[in-house]
Amino acid sequence: MRTSWRIGVALAGAAAAVAVFAVVWPRAHDAAALLLAQDDPAELSDLQLGAVLRDRQNSIVENVTAALDAGDVDLAKSFTDLAKDRDIPLPAGMSERVDAALAAENSTAGVARRFATGLVTGEANDAASLSGTVTGDLFVFGDIRDVVREGKRLAMGEDADRLVLGLAGAGLAVTAATYVSAGGVAPVRAGLSMVKDARKLGRLGTGLTEWAGRSARGVVDAPALQQAVATASIAHPGQAIAAMKAAFKAEKAGALVRLAKDVGRVSEKAGTRGALDVLRIADGPKDVARAARLAEKKGSQTRAILKILGRGALLLAMGAFNLAWWMFAACLAVFGFLSSIKSATERITLSWLQRSRRKRVLRDVVVAQTPGPIQAI
What we know:
single chain; 377 residues; mainly alpha; 19 helices
């Protein structure tokens, strides 16, 4: 009876281990896939999107409707592209509605108006306004405008935005390189303009702002800039611009230029608003570099992915320790199952051997007690 009880306990343990494994395995499988994909933003976002969209079937439809209601046609288009890529059906007429809104936004009058706004104000919200902003910066109008404004504040002892100053200074150096290379570094120029605009509009993430601020600190020679602004003369604009350029240390702007290059890569594949979305959620230049890799593979879907997953599209949203724990729990369940089966097998074998031994002993006793032929006579 005692052996039978032990066999029952071992089999119960095996059944419990199977039940635990059945519960843990899906999470462990997902955890392993996420850990393997943590260095590939596109694969990582695909895995996380699959889980999110399984739980929220109407998420894409709701986001398309919300984007259209907010007037963000570019985001609505991004969601329809994502739905098409993942074979998610949309209500009848929704794609046509998005296409009509996009055509109206890209009309000649609308593009011209946004281009002029970007050229004059230096604020970019889409491709047209960014074109105006970059045009102004290419003719050093935008960068000089920002340098004069912030330099004047610096000269008067007011709070100047040193990050905008550093970006404008880097922009002056990149603009010269753009002319020399016939536009070869234009994406970097566009990236600098977007980072600068995001800063002025308050759309630059806190972590990225702190990093960029530290990087820009060594770019600006404050005393030289104060003197250049104070002695600037409308009658001699060339001398004023040369003095302002001299106040910036181009060799110190390498980190900002690399950031701008990644922002430009995002803008080329995901659009201006996609780049601005990245700048808003990024915690540092590594996040922007990851976003550039994501945009290169996902293109117009990038904005929708960032809208759904946020910064989780760029890196593991769940800690590696938590993911590893699910895998460890699955391994424990397998180990428990194997141990229980081993114990049950040993108990069953021992029970069989003991039963066989008892039968053999009993048979020997019976044979010994049975009279032989001589005894019978």
